[in-house]
Every structure is written in structure tokens, then in C-alpha cells.
């Protein structure tokens, strides 16, 4: 009997997203093994207790890549993408990126595409906490006239961002636009909140032709965040609204973010293309 082929993944970071990936794969039991987790120095022992003995917990990229994963999954930060992405791709490891705000820098984006080509690796960008990107990808084959992405979160989700100094967040009583501008600026100024602004741009009209709004909305149902995607093209129009549950311990991130990452990894298994 042939041995089951299993996908080996290694995670960068052990926060809410990584923990949910562990939970999903534990429950669904797909042919996917999390072989390692890269954490900051000083957090190895604490993380090891949480993930169990079967998963290697390391504090260097070199040690993580020694585990020979099929896919390295970034679930940490834009800094991790900038610091390690090129090396991962050049060495031939597929790299899944969720902190896509780092690619608001077109130089980094081109560098990583070149590294992927050189290493024979794939740069994977899951859709994150949004839907409709399949439609946008198809519509861009024609002529895109307008692409607008709106990220809507409760006021407290914008703490620790420039909005905190520009607005009295606890006093906001109605939906308030706290940022209006380009994807690269949204991703740079709001690195934990607005990565999807850059994802939408890369899937559609590009960094210079995509409109972004970030909204603080105290009227959202408790524990949720929302988004809107508006596309006008010669092929028609797309208007999509999403209301999603936020991570219990991280209101800046939606549960759907982790689920789309899990789904993308499951697609690799289903299509047997690794």
C-alpha cells in the first residue's frame, strides 16, 4: 500500500493565526503536518509547551528551513516578510504571505518575484479576510475603471495606529473614515490592520490605481469587523460586503484570515501540486 503523501508546513510566528491553523488541522485531520514554528528568541520553551513535542520550535530561519517544509507560512508581520522572504524563496521553498502590506514597496515585491523564479518556488498570497478576489482577478483581464476597498473595524481595533493620535477613538459615535488614500500608505501606516489593502491592489488595478478607506465604526455588532469591495470594469460591476468575526484576542484580525490560509493549504493537498 502506497504511503500517504503529506504536506509539510512551517510557521513563522505563533500568534492567533498560527494557533487557529493548529486547531483547524487538528479538527479536520488533512494530510498536512506542521513540522516547525519560528518564534522570537526567548519564546522557544513557552511555545514548545503549547504545541507539543512533535513540532520543532526554533528561533532562527536556518533551523526552520532545515526541517525541509514544502511551504513556509508567514503568520507574523511585515517585518518577517521583509527580513526572510527573499532567502526562503531563493532557497526554493514556497512562501505564503499574509502580511502583504510589505508589498506596498514595489521594489520588495519585484525582488521576491525574482527570488521565487530563481529558486523555482511559489509566492502564495491567500485572500485574507475578504471574498470576491476571484472576480477581481478575472475582471482585470479586461479594463478596470475603479477598484475601491474599505476596511471597517470598531474604534478600539485602531488603537496603536496613527488614528489614535488623530482621533479620540473612544468618543467616536458613528462610522468615521480615519484614512483615505493609497494601498502602500495604508499598509505602511496600519501594518496590523490594512494588509488587505495591498492584496486587493496586487490582484486588481495596482498600487497607484486602487482607492482605500479605513473606517472606525462603533455600530458594528460586538466582536466583528467588516469590509467592502467595489469594482467597476468594462465587463461589469462587483459590489461585495462582508461581516466577519474578529479573533477573540486580536480585534485587528478576522477569523476568516486564518481560514483562507488553511483553505489555500488544503487546495495544495487536493490538487497534489507540490
Explain what the structure shows.
The chain has 274 residues and is of the alpha/beta class. The protein has 2 domains: 7-125, Rossmann fold, CATH 3.40.50.720; 133-253, Dihydrodipicolinate Reductase, domain 2, CATH 3.30.360.10. Helices cover 36% and strands 27% of the residues. The protein is built from 10 helices and 12 strands. The protein has helices spanning 16-28, 44-51, 61-65, 78-90, 106-119, 133-139, 162-166, 183-189, 195-203, 255-271; strands at residues 7-12, 32-38, 56-58, 71-74, 94-97, 123-124, 144-153, 176-181, 211-216, 224-233, 236-247, 250-254. It has a 6-stranded parallel beta sheet, with helices on both faces. A 6-stranded mixed beta sheet has the order 8-9-7-10-11-12. Helix 2 links the parallel strand 2 and strand 3 (56-58). Helix 8 runs antiparallel to helix 9. The model has no long low-confidence stretch (mean pLDDT 95). This is L-aspartate dehydrogenase. Specifically catalyzes the NAD or NADP-dependent dehydrogenation of L-aspartate to iminoaspartate. Its EC number is 1.4.1.21. GO terms for molecular function: aspartate dehydrogenase [NAD(P)+] activity. Keywords: NAD, NADP, Oxidoreductase, Pyridine nucleotide biosynthesis.
Distance between the termini: 21 Å
Q: What is the H/E string?
A: EHEHEHEHEHEHEHEHHEEEEH
Low-confidence stretches: none
CATH class of the largest domain: Alpha Beta
Q: How big a fraction of the residues is strand?
A: 25-35%
Q: Any idea what the shape is?
A: globular
CATH homologous superfamily descriptor of the largest domain:
Dihydrodipicolinate Reductase, domain 2
SSE-based structural type: alpha/beta
Overall pLDDT: 95
Amino acid at each position: 500500500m502506497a504511503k500517504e503523501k503529506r504536506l509539510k508546513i512551517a510557521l513563522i510566528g505563533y500568534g492567533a493565526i498560527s494557533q487557529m491553523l493548529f486547531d483547524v488541522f487538528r479538527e479536520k485531520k488533512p494530510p498536512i503536518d506542521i513540522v516547525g514554528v519560528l518564534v522570537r528568541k526567548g519564546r522557544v520553551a513557552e511555545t514548545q509547551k503549547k504545541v507539543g513535542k512533535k513540532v520543532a520550535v526554533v528561533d532562527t530561519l536556518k533551523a526552520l528551513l532545515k526541517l525541509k517544509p514544502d511551504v513556509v507560512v508567514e503568520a507574523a508581520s511585515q517585518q518577517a516578510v521583509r527580513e526572510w522572504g527573499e532567502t526562503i524563496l531563493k532557497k526554493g521553498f514556497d512562501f505564503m504571505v499574509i502580511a502583504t502590506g510589505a508589498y506596498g514597496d514595489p521594489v520588495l515585491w519585484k525582488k521576491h518575484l525574482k527570488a521565487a523564479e530563481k529558486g523555482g518556488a511559489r509566492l502564495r498570497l491567500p485572500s485574507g479576510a475578504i471574498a470576491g478576489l476571484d472576480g477581481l482577478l478575472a475582471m482585470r483581464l479586461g479594463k478596470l475603471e475603479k477598484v475601491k476597498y474599505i476596511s471597517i473595524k470598531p474604534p478600539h481595533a485602531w488603537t496603536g495606529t496613527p488614528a489614535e493620535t488623530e482621533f479620540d477613538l473612544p468618543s467616536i459615535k458613528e462610522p468615521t473614515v480615519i484614512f483615505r488614500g493609497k494601498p502602500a500608505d495604508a499598509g505602511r501606516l496600519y501594518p496590523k490592520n490594512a494588509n488587505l489593502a495591498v492584496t486587493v491592489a496586487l490582484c486588481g488595478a495596482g498600487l497607484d490605481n486602487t482607492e482605500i478607506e479605513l473606517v472606525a465604526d462603533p455600530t458594528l455588532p460586538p466582536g466583528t469587523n467588516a469590509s467592502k469591495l467595489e469594482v467597476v470594469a468594462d465587463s461589469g460591476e462587483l459590489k461585495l460586503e462582508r461581516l466577519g468575526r474578529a479573533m477573540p484576542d486580536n480585534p485587528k484580525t478576522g477569523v476568516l484570515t486564518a481560514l483562507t490560509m488553511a483553505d489555500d493549504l488544503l487546495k495544495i493537498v487536493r490538487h497534489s501540486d507540490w
